Amino acid sequence: MNSITVRDKEFVSYLTEDQIQQRIVKLAEELTTDYKDKNPLFIGVLNGSFMFVADLMKQLSIDCEIAFIRLSSYAGMESTGNVKQVLGLQDNVFGRHIVLLEDIVDSGLTMEQTVAFFEDRGPKSIEIATLLLKPESLEKDLSLKYVGFEIPEKFVVGYGLDYDGHGRNLKDIYQLKEG
Ligand code: IMP
């Protein structure tokens, strides 16, 4: 099996570029059916989603808009350590059909907080499209309408996902090697 080293860890091939692209074509078909004539606003969550957003958007020919946000933990005394601040949103989301685009949902905390942020701003609808989901790790009651792949509770890297800032540029997705 194809294995690589990222920083100090060894990873093995898990999802190939072809598998990812084939799944993205299917997701794009679903989104086309659901959002045709709705002018959705797709919002990618940086950094991890950049490859997924680019490839998904290339498969969509419906009228739509695309924006990106970044999340950062609140700094300062009131920080709880995991409350995320949404940075970079310039678009008005009131009355819009919003689709959040994420690389991976693990515990679901990040997406729960992000959805809450957008719900406060009065969108017409809000859905999540995530390339990867770890169902065994999910702790939050999230509606995940569009999921690329359900994967086991193991750390993955590549195709936008990083290990310690590295590996985002890999075309395939790799899984942490056992032992
Ligand atoms: P959650 O809030 O626990 O759902 O975590 C979501 C975030 O954790 C993702 O946006 C990723 O940045 C990161 N993450 C979770 N699992 C992995 C993984 O296996 N590889 C790389 N990043 C991950």
What does this structure look like?
The chain is an alpha/beta fold. The chain has a domain at 23-74 and 83-153: 3-Layer(aba) Sandwich (Rossmann fold). Helix content is 22%, strand content 33%. It contains three helices and ten strands, in the order ββαβαβββαββββ. The strands form two sheets. It has a six-stranded mixed sheet with strand order 5-4-3-6-7-8, sandwiched between helices. Strands 1-2-10-9 form a four-stranded antiparallel sheet. The two termini are 16 Å apart. The model has no long low-confidence stretch (mean pLDDT 94).
Bulk shape? globular
* Ligand roster: inosinic acid
State the total count of DSSP E strands: 10
CATH architecture of the domain at 23-74 and 83-153: 3-Layer(aba) Sandwich
Distance between the termini: 16 Å
Oligomer: single chain
Strands of the widest sheet, in order across it, are 5-4-3-6-7-8
Helix content: 10-25%
The averaged pLDDT comes out at: 94
CATH fold-level label of the domain at 23-74 and 83-153: Rossmann fold
* Unreliable residue stretches: none
Radius of gyration: 16 Å
In percent terms, what proportion of residues is strand?
25-35%
- Classification by helices and strands: alpha/beta
Task: Please work out how many helical segments DSSP would assign.
Answer: 3
